[in-house]
């Protein structure tokens, strides 16, 4: 599901956050996560290192991009992930 764009060309942050929430819940096999830009792996018991890799791969597939090891290491929370997606997409 691609991100939606508003008439002024800005990507709809809430739409992207909702899609990332769906991917994270599916990856972790949990329901009703409260996903905010501040959410990190430390906040969710099921978000271990293996699930982190699965989540990153699912995000790469969704947004049709690949992250470098350096980019992944710099992602401390969902906001950092979204910023990295934006940077790679040229937003």
UniProtKB/TrEMBL annotation:
It holds the Pfam family PP-binding. This is Carrier domain-containing protein. It comes from the Bacteria. The lineage of its organism: Bacteria, Pseudomonadati, Pseudomonadota, Alphaproteobacteria, Geminicoccales. Residues 14-89 form the Carrier domain.
